[in-house]
Design goal:
The protein is mostly beta strands. It has one domain: Quinoprotein alcohol dehydrogenase-like superfamily (Methanol Dehydrogenase, Chain A). Helices cover about 5% and strands about 30% of the residues. The strands form 12 sheets. The protein has a 5-stranded mixed β-sheet with strand order 1-35-36-37-38, with no helix packed on it.
Length: about 625
């Protein structure tokens, strides 16, 4: 039986201006489909979109030591006629959904002096309690970059004093904290009944014994811990059953859920996309497959008990976390509608499982993959590949003839790099000479995930197709000036990694470097795939429409439009869901490395995107939340 709180979230969304259509969760619904029923903006009129309102938070991280890493990745949620969102520095803001006028703000005040691994917040969650009229009857929950879970009154933005200690819980307690600033929460929590369920972001590759990747559920009223789940089993006989040695289960950290979880409210299940165990690129200290890392894990949402699991990467050596929200929807199999989980991956693969049992809905093959040549390492001899759909990115080995360049000179320099490194296709393990990774550790798909139109049976996914080089360096030879250096303490090797670029800064593999694809999830086929983005804002004129790196995700509307920003050029785009044709693009004042959302308020449909740039991609910084709509 559903409890009141889940219903109240829906009522909050519907309680806005007359005619409002809601976006009450990060992915619009608890299953993360990012499908909106709104139809006012259509393929025929989308070209008339204009900026309806702009909100500027003013929060650019003044005084923050790690401000240069900031990425404004938030997707607002809609409740009671207000949009709620968070800045990279954990200022939580409520604005009027129809006008963008600020209603309140709350600064969660993370420590500005820490060296944070990441500086971002992808959003908040709103929960309602009909048994608590007055203050905090509706609550905004948000994680912080210094590892807290805060609860605010949705009406005023003031802390809910009855939650935790004065409105917050310190999530760094009980996780074997190693380095402050490296244990964080960057994605919104999941909600189920009276529970707030939250994971963590853990700074990669510092050491073997990183923080525990525990997922925890708290009472939404009091902050009392209801259950916890560690993807790495810590006790016998569970550890032995899952293939962990005594030493590995004690010292290995991470396996955490840094991305977005999904909830099947009807079935009482929460779905976790877990990450790699520590460290990412050397597994000699953690032999075996390393369950439940790199997996989709379905838990009983009331107890935290494992219901089923599917590991997608065995013994990860590539930072191939499961990065995206599992999408809960129905697909058609043999003429019947089947409840499914669709999981996008950094490998550019889409896995599809039965939601209740975890059984694959498309066959999965175990295929041989290259062996490691690094002393002390034992890579998994096979990896899992779904027979359908086909990969959305290249998995091929790269030879010097595959090098790309605008001139003979820079193409030749890229060819020299390709010749110098090991490359035997996807899952070639890291090596001492250096290994080419395609797709790179950034994906494929990353946290942007997919949107799913259940009526059409189509998933929309944006992917990266950029090559990186990963090299293990004996500790005695490692220095901090290595590209992308991280120490991997407790192992024989430090890590060096970087994207492989030409002397003029372009990726050395052939474009497109970013694409948007439509995948028929009933047939397991690619319907269309088009380049996403131009070299504008990435390179001097002339600009080429060849597809560029991207972070963020798509949404899809019932009228047949796919909206996405994400690219290194500063645009929000609309594509025809049937054909992949670009129908419109709106210029943004800063990088749009976020996922948009849409809703209808006062009879007008808005499409909203955060435009604040991304430190890693180097896009233009800003503090903008923009709403586009048709002219009145």
């Amino acid at each position: 039986m559903l409890r009141w709180c889940c219903l109240v979230v829906g009522m909050l969304a519907a309680a806005g201006p007359a005619g409002a259509e809601g976006w009450p969760s990060y992915g619009r619904d608890p299953g993360g489909t990012r499908f909106a029923p709104d139809r006012q903006i259509t393929p025929g009129n989308v070209g008339r979109l204009e900026i309806a309102w702009t909100h500027r938070s003013g929060d650019m991280g003044a005084g923050f030591r790690a401000a240069g890493k900031a990425a404004f990745e938030a997707t607002p949620v809609l409740a009671a006629g207000r949009l709620y969102f968070s800045t990279p520095f954990n200022v939580i803001v409520a604005v009027d959904a129809a006008t963008g006028a600020e209603v309140w703000r709350h600064d969660a005040r993370p420590d500005p002096g820490l060296r944070y691994s990441e500086v971002t917040s992808r959003g908040v969650a709103v929960w309602g309690d009909p048994a608590a009229p007055g203050p905090c009857a509706a609550r905004v929950f948000s994680g912080t970059i210094d590892g807290r879970l805060v609860a605010l009154d949705a009406a005023t933005g003031k802390p809910c004093a009855d939650f935790g200690r004065g409105g917050a819980i310190d999530l760094t307690e009980g996780v074997r904290l190693r380095d402050r600033g490296d244990y964080q929460t960057t994605s919104p929590p999941a909600l189920f009944e009276d529970l707030v369920i939250i994971g963590s972001a853990i700074g990669d590759n510092r050491a073997v014994d990183l923080e525990f990747g525990i997922v925890r559920a708290y009472d939404a009223r009091t902050g009392r811990l209801a259950w916890s789940f560690d993807p790495i089993p810590r006790t016998e006989p569970e550890a032995s059953r899952l293939g962990w040695s005594a030493k590995a289960r004690e010292q290995t950290g991470a396996g955490n859920v840094w991305s977005i979880m999904s909830v099947d409210v009807e079935r009482g299940l929460v779905f976790l996309p877990t990450s790699s165990p520590s460290p990412d690129f050397y597994g000699g200290e953690r032999p075996g497959d390393n369950l439940y890392a790199n997996s989709v894990v379905a838990l009983d949402a009331r107890t935290g008990r494992v219901v089923w699991h599917q590991q997608l990467v065995r013994h990860d050596l590539w930072d191939y976390d499961v990065p995206a929200q599992p999408v809960l929807a129905e697909v058609t199999r043999e003429g019947r509608r089947v409840p499914a989980v669709i999981q996008a991956t950094k490998m550019g693969l889409l896995f599809v499982f039965h939601r209740e049992t975890g059984a694959p809905l498309f066959e999965i093959e175990e295929r041989p993959v290259p062996a490691s040549d690094v002393p002390g390492e034992a890579a998994a001899p096979t990896q899992r590949f779904p027979v359908k759909p086909p990969p959305l990115v290249s998995h091929k080995a790269l030879a010097p003839d595959d090098a790309f360049g605008l001139t003979f000179w820079d193409r030749g320099k890229c060819a020299e790099k390709f010749a110098a490194y090991r490359s035997e296709g996807i899952y070639t393990p890291p090596s001492l000479k250096g290994t080419l990774m395609l797709p790179s550790y950034a994906g494929g798909t990353n946290w942007g995930g997919i949107a799913f139109d259940e009526a059409r049976g189509i998933a929309f996914a944006n992917v990266n197709n950029v090559v990186a080089v990963v090299r293990l360096v004996p500790q005695a030879e490692a220095t901090r000036d290595l590209p992308g250096y991280t120490p991997q303490r407790g192992t024989p090797y430090a890590l060096s990694r970087e994207i492989v670029t030409s002397p003029i800064g372009m990726p050395c593999n052939a474009p497109p470097w970013g694409t948007l694809a439509a995948v028929d999830m009933n047939a397991g086929t690619i319907k269309w795939q088009v380049p996403l983005g131009t070299t504008r804002d990435l390179a001097p004129w002339p600009w080429f429409e060849i597809g560029v790196p991207n972070f963020g995700g798509p949404i899809v509307t019932a009228s047949g439009l796919v909206f996405i920003a994400a690219t290194t050029d500063n645009y929000l785009r609309a594509f025809d869901a049937e054909t992949g044709k670009e129908l419109w693009k709106g210029r943004l004042p800063a990088g749009g490395q976020a996922t948009p959302m849409t809703y209808t308020a006062n009879g007008r449909q808005f499409v909203v995107i955060a435009a604040g740039g991304h430190g890693m991609l180097g896009t233009d910084k800003g503090d903008y939340l923009l709403a586009f709509a048709l002219p009145r």
